[in-house]
Write a structure and sequence with these properties.
Zincin-like, about 200 residues, about 15% strand, three-stranded mixed beta sheet, 7 strands, alpha/beta
Length: about 200
């Protein structure tokens, strides 16, 4: 069983929005409230069947800071416009650079991680910055050449650490932190800038 209704957003999200803003609420057999901000800037709440509107409104009020922050990011991205697509020549140049740069980083950090590796491949992948196979073969995205050197280091170390743990467990991240103490900052960089880089390749 599922049905929908609307509740009024208990604050103003700023310019470009009507007053009031009505947020759709999809009620179903789920047990918790969840909030989604769509790419077009609209909000959606999913919640339990019998949850009162007042509780949904209170939930939205608690999320005001998160909502305003993410709306601001969407506005900034829209103002910045679409990133310029790379030409075939530029992609080829990135691949050539990556074939020298990234293996050198593997050679540098492999002993620090304490592992060996197999074949190193450079690709223009759609969703991944790097990968490590069970056989120890490494693959890296040529778009890494558009990232800062410390971000490239992080991806190389990340994949090398999969030679120790083929998962993302606490032990895996402990290995990463041992060789790359600022890995959280590099993960943040990819969260903030990675999507724009991928769009330069694939649109």
């Amino acid at each position: 069983m599922m049905y929908s209704s609307h509740v009024r957003l208990p604050f103003s999200p700023g310019d470009g929005y009507p007053d009031p803003v009505w947020v759709p609420v999809i009620r179903s057999a789920r047990k918790t409230l969840a909030l989604t901000l769509k790419p077009d800037g609209t909000l959606l709440v999913r919640g339990p069947l019998r949850i009162p509107d007042a509780e949904v409104t209170a939930f939205l009020a608690q999320k005001e800071s998160w909502i305003q922050s993410h709306l601001a990011k969407q506005r900034d991205a829209a103002e910045a416009g679409e990133p310029e697509r790379l030409t075939r020549e530029e992609i080829d140049a990135l691949i050539r650079g990556a074939r020298t740069d990234l293996p050198a980083r593997v050679i540098r950090f492999g002993p620090a991680v304490g592992v060996s590796w197999g074949r190193i491949t450079i690709r223009n992948q759609r969703t991944r910055w790097g990968s490590c196979s069970a056989a120890g073969n490494l693959s890296f995205n040529c778009l890494l050449m558009l990232a800062p050197p410390e971000a490239r280091d992080y991806v190389v170390i990340h994949e090398l650490c999969h030679r120790l743990e083929m998962n993302h467990s606490a032990r895996f991240w402990a290995h990463v932190a041992r060789v790359c103490p600022d890995y959280q900052a590099q993960k943040k960089w990819f969260r903030e800038h990675g999507p724009a880089l991928m769009k330069r390749m694939f649109g």
